[in-house]
Write a structure and sequence with these properties.
With 218 residues, the chain is mainly alpha-helical. It folds into 2 domains: 2-30 and 144-206, Orthogonal Bundle (Endonuclease Iii, domain 2); 38-138, Hypothetical protein, domain 2 (Endonuclease III, domain 1). It is built from 12 helices and no strands.
């Protein structure tokens, strides 16, 4: 196992060059979710589970006009909220999570979205990935690296990790990624994963990392 790990480390793509090339390829990389305050971002990320940003943005366009505070999410029956978010999928579980989250915000945080990992992951429907998204994008706190399916896939293909469990992938990435770059690095990998390094058929011939990537088919 040690020998295999050493071989992987020797052939891993160098992070500084990966970051520099992706930054040049995707200047201004940011989340594609639409939001205007921390609560909107938190709700959008909860809705994004097993859905697409495009679908979530279509839902939140009207949702955020109707619900502007945690109290608003609790002022309606769960069934009404379910109908409002139905196109995002898994609407019953997500409505329950959003209302539970809103109740916790009111009871424990004076209705404000907290700024710590510990407090965020204590909210219903919020795991470490969601907390990292909110901390990094809403508050500029780069405590961790957001690991979604794209980040996990690209980190493995680039040889930056051998793990598939998101928390273990994040643990492997943290020493490699400077704190100030953690949020944008996730955005860069997500954009590259969506547009080039796709799950079923990566477009290696069009990839700016092909000469660095140990998984390249070029």
């Amino acid at each position: 196992m040690t020998e295999r790990r050493e071989q992987t480390e020797r052939r891993a793509a160098p992070f500084p060059e990966v970051f520099a090339r992706l930054s040049a390829e995707y200047p201004g990389a940011d989340t594609e979710l639409r939001w205007s305050d921390p609560l909107e971002l938190l709700v959008a990320v909860i809705l994004s589970a097993q859905s697409t940003d495009v679908r979530v943005n279509a839902v939140t366009e009207s949702l955020f006009r109707k619900y502007r505070s945690p109290e608003d999410y609790l002022a309606v029956a769960q069934e009404e909220l379910e109908e409002d978010i139905r196109p995002a999928g898994f609407f019953r579980n997500k409505a329950k999570a959003i209302q539970g989250m809103a109740r916790r915000l009111i009871e424990a945080h004076d209705g404000e979205v907290p700024r710590s990992m510990e407090d965020l992951v204590a909210l219903p429907g919020v795991g470490r990935k969601t907390a990292n998204v909110v901390l990094g994008n809403a508050f500029g706190i780069n405590e961790g690296v957001v690991v979604d399916t794209h980040v996990k896939r690209l980190a493995n293909r680039l040889g930056l990790t051998e793990n598939t469990d998101p928390e273990k992938v994040e643990r492997d990435l943290l020493p490699l990624v400077p704190e100030n770059d953690r949020t944008v690095f996730s955005h860069l990998l997500i954009l590259h994963g969506r547009r080039v390094c796709k799950a079923r058929k990566p477009l290696c011939e069009a990839c700016v990392l092909s000469d660095l990537c140990p998984s390249s088919r070029v």
